[in-house]
Each structure stands twice: as C-alpha cells, then as structure tokens.
Amino acid sequence: MILTGPEITAAEVDGRLRITPFDAAQVNPNSYNVRLGPTLLTYKAPVLDAHRSNPTHRIEIGADGYVLKPGQLYLGHTVEQVGSDTFVPLLFGRSSVGRLGLFVEITAPIGDIGFHGQWTLMLSPIRPLRVYAGMKIGQIMFFVAVGPITPYSGKYQAASGPRPSAYWRDVAPLEAVAP
C-alpha cells in the first residue's frame, strides 16, 4: 500500500515519517516533492574503481544555475532530510524533469526504513540542461512495510549533502576474491 498525500501529511505531523523542512505545498496526491540542494559532486578520475574511494570535485550551484553536461554523472542531494522508521521510501524523478532529459535516481530509488538524512541523487542528463538549487527535482513515495522491521544503520545514515559511493567499504580485499 502506498500513502496518499493526506496520509503523508498526517504521518509527518504524528512522527511516523520525518521531512525537514516540511511544506504542505509540496504534497502530491501520493508523493512528496523534494528539491535539489545547492551542491553537486563529480568524480575526478576517468575510470572509477569499485574497490577504492574515488576522489570527487565539488560544485556549488550559483544563482544563475549550473549546466549539466551529457556523459557526466552528477551527485546531487535533496534540500529536505527525509526518513521513516515505519514506511519504505522510494524516490523517483519528477516527470516534468524527465521530459527535459534528466534521469534522476534510475538505479537506486529505494530507501531503507530507518534512514534519516538528505538523499543523494544520481543525475544523468541526455542533453545540456541548466538546473537550479531549490528546483523540484524528485518525488518520494512511502509504502507500508509488512513484517518485522530492522532499522537502517549503515554508512550513509544522517547524510548531509551529496555522498559519493562507499561501495568499497563493503567488498572483500582483492586478494581474498577467488577467480
């Protein structure tokens, strides 16, 4: 089951989910609009390594916006801190942003129950696109969980700003991997 807009508002008021800052004008019939934060990250290396930390370049989106270029992955973040210890959040791009040729969160839309923080957004433009801090970039839906809940306590908890991949923290050392 998915929460309706009025139930999202009720759950935010009674604490079953947290959205900070919360704005009733961002509530949709069955989702909540989230806005793009002012910071982007890009990876510096031409080849990324899943077994190592990859250095990033920080970009601050100015008042005139910032032009995203095709072929580049940008890590952005939501203005809002969103989380729930009760519901499963899923984040998707808004259709109006998709119609501009921007893929938002294609491979990892599901959030964990118990995560609370700003969401890192994976942004991939099809063509050059100027984006602005504070623009509505995505929408989060909340689903009812069935069964016992083990809250998330992982490496991205309480994220603030965009976070690069920490996949390398989860992998076995290269020597330990069998061919």
TrEMBL record:
Protein keywords: Hydrolase, Nucleotide metabolism
Enzyme class: hydrolase
SUPFAM superfamilies to which the protein is assigned, alphabetical: dUTPase-like
The UniProt record lists the keyword Hydrolase: yes
Superkingdom in the source lineage: Bacteria
Sample GO molecular function, one term: dCTP deaminase activity
InterPro entries hit by this protein: dCTP_deaminase, dUTPase-like_sf, dUTPase_trimeric
A Pfam family: DCD
Record bears the keyword Phosphoprotein: no
Enzyme Commission number: 3.5.4.13
NCBIfam families assigned to the protein according to its UniProt record, in alphabetical order: dCTP_deam (TIGR02274)
Protein name (record): dCTP deaminase
Species in which this protein is naturally found: Streptomyces sirii
Gene: dcd
